[in-house]
Amino acid sequence: MQDPKVIVALDFNERARCLALVEQLTPTACRLKIGKEMFTRFGPEFVRELQSRGFEIFLDLKFHDIPNTVAKAVQAAADLGVWMVNVHASGGRRMMQAAKDALSDYPNPPKLIAVTVLTSMQPDELQEVGYSTELAQQVERLAKLTEQCGLDGVVCSAQEAAQLREYLPESFLLVTPGIRLSHAPEDDQRRIMTPTDALKAGSSYLVVGRPITQSAEPLVVLESINASLAKMA
Ligand SMILES: O=C(O)c1cc(=O)[nH]c(=O)n1[C@@H]1O[C@H](COP(=O)(O)O)[C@@H](O)[C@H]1O
């Protein structure tokens, strides 16, 4: 597969257990995501270890800080040679532009994307933290702002993908976590969708964690997702 659609979210507290899973996967079948848990425990060295096995890495640290701090953090991610890195769109225009500008001198910069509204959030929780906008409207607002700032795409739930695709070009990446196979538990996710529905709705990449990592047969699950997506091509 030239451009695998699945990004496997590696959220483990043990390096060895994580590597035992990674050994079953191949860079042609998926990319890998390292997030806050593993990066805080095992640091950049672990990212390099996975890269040395040929995997492209989405460094999911969701930077959200003052523009200068986020710009420097994004440069640190670029120096690490990751494929993708993210910030929170709610950090605002100046923060996102600073992050984008910080990558301008890199010949092959990571894809820079922004989180709109976390896929674990549901409408009442958004209201509770002070947003009076409808959830889908808030996603749309932040996606438009992200595009205006020149970033490569957004993280959103696949439930919003079709709506966003109405005015965002194919080249603008919609990276969608909250992917669940039918009948699987939603866990702490709230806005979920199956892999094929997500792709149909316009997702560019699917972030899949527990449905693969907690499965007794992770490779079988990954291969069956890839096969179902391939059928749609
Ligand atoms: O940026 C992300 O990757 C992300 C954004 C979001 O809105 N929701 C979300 O679940 N994620 C990440 O995607 C992964 C989803 O994992 P599972 O719920 O196990 O499939 C986790 O590593 C989350 O940190």
UniProtKB/TrEMBL annotation:
Active site: K62
Annotated catalysed reactions: orotidine 5'-phosphate + H(+) = UMP + CO2
E.C. number: 4.1.1.23
Pathway participation: Pyrimidine metabolism; UMP biosynthesis via de novo pathway; UMP from orotate: step 2/2
Keyword Lyase: yes
Binding-site residues for substrate, renumbered to this chain: 11, 33, 60-69, 119, 180, 189, 209-210
GO function terms (MF aspect): orotidine-5'-phosphate decarboxylase activity
Residue ranges occupied by any Orotidine 5'-phosphate decarboxylase domain in the UniProt entry: 5-225
Superkingdom as given in the UniProt entry: Bacteria
InterPro entries given in the database record: Aldolase_TIM (IPR013785), OMPdecase (IPR014732), OMPdecase_AS (IPR018089), OMPdecase_bac (IPR047596), OMPdeCOase_dom (IPR001754), RibuloseP-bd_barrel (IPR011060)
UniProt KW keywords: Decarboxylase, Lyase, Pyrimidine biosynthesis
Pfam families per record: OMPdecase (PF00215)
PANTHER family: OROTIDINE 5'-PHOSPHATE DECARBOXYLASE (PTHR32119)
Reported function: Catalyzes the decarboxylation of orotidine 5'-monophosphate (OMP) to uridine 5'-monophosphate (UMP).
Family assignment from sequence similarity: Belongs to the OMP decarboxylase family. Type 1 subfamily.
Subunit structure, as described in the record: Homodimer.
UniProt name for this protein: Orotidine 5'-phosphate decarboxylase
Organism expressing this protein natively: Celerinatantimonas yamalensis
Gene: pyrF
